[in-house]
Amino acid sequence: MIGVRNGARRRARLVALGAEVPERVVTNADMAKVVDTTDEWIYSRTGIKERRFVADDEAASDLAARAAEKILTEAGMDPLELDTLIIPTASPDHLFPATATLVADRIGAHRAAAFDILAGCTGFIYGLAQGTALIESGLASNVLVLGAEALTRITDQTDRRTCVLFGDAAAGALLVGAPEDEVTGFLGFELGADGSGGLDLVVPAGGSRMPAQSGPYEPAQSCIQMNGREVFKFATRVMVDSCTKLLEALEMHVDEIDLLVPHQANQRIIDHAISRLGIPPEKVFNNLERYGNTSSASIPLAMLEAREAGLLAPGDVTLLVGFGAGLTWGSTIMRYEPT
Ligand code: UT7
User: Domain ranges in the chain?
Assistant: First the structure.
């Protein structure tokens, strides 16, 4: 990518969506064959019925490359036109290089800058903010933000507290520059982080704190560990706070929101938040029943399916909100203008 600030003012606009999910469907009944759980417990506590698992030889970049190709095809864009590829992920192929560099190479985005964002399930919102900033500063024109997760590869499949929750997917959105006078694109962002709760959702080993070679560790130390109750309390609080602060900053009323697409972690968290915010359930799109928590892929995957269901139409004012490891949170309000 090469970009210079030329004084042109413009807005970032989301023009295309796409996703790739693995073929293998794992139901709650399947999970109950592996750990001490039931379909009744999982569904009533989380709202999840099934999730997708990558194959044993698949990683996040494999799903991401296929999703990226779908998004570029929808937009009719050559990969060489991409200025930046941003991959929010909590389950990258490796500690480094960034998964985004591997995907850029795979799809032929040879002129793109490529980097990952590590903000847990909030990664897609952080990535949208980054892409918007690049475009609106004049440094980039075409930015692909693509959440990519192979979470089941870093989940302890013997830990019933976590293994029933997570699934694999890649999903994202293409952002392009539009003239500033068009009332479209991203109206604002509210982003935050509170590292005091960082260890409530952590993969302990494999980094510089507990290097892989200084093991052997229990297998669980290399997997997602979560203090579910603390994360639950945090999530219900920040979802409401973040959306409220953003609406206030934009001087908007909640009734102006046509569609809310929240991070898909737990139906009880979503239900609590929308009732506090005063958003009716028919304005909220959820699909965690079929995919579980796919972290940074969950919001764009839900946006895509909302569009397929006729709930995300051009001009719609859409509120996106996420929370996750870090602990982080973020929300944005955008007008969806695909053309
Ligand atoms: O994307 C961001 C990251 N994650 C989240 O947003 C997750 C936030 N947290 C949650 O969604 C919920 O806390 C969970 C779904 C993880 C857990 O639900 P909970 O209602 O908070 O359950 P709990 O942790 O309080 O556990 C209640 C009981 C425990 O048994 P005891 O100690 O009361 O005897 C658990 O051992 O449920 C037990 N339990 C299970 N039972 C059957 C935990 N997992 C399971 C399971 N099947 N899969």
Answer: 10-179, 186-335
Cα of 228 vs centre of ligand 1, distance in Å, is 6
The residue nearest atom 5 of ligand 1, judged by CA position, is 265
Tell me the residue ranges of DSSP E strands in the chain.
Answer: 10-20, 24-27, 50-53, 84-88, 113-117, 142-149, 169-179, 185-193, 201-202, 225-226, 259-262, 317-324, 328-335
Domain 10-179 has CATH 3.50.30.50: no
CATH number at 186-335: 3.40.47.10
How confident is the model over 114-147, as pLDDT tens digits? 999 999 999 999 999 999 999 999 999 999 999 9
Model-level pTM? 0.96
Domains 10-179 and 186-335 share a fold: yes
Catalytic residue among 28, 121, 142, 163: 121
Predicted confidence (pLDDT) per residue in 76-113, tens digit: 999 999 999 999 999 999 999 999 999 999 999 999 99
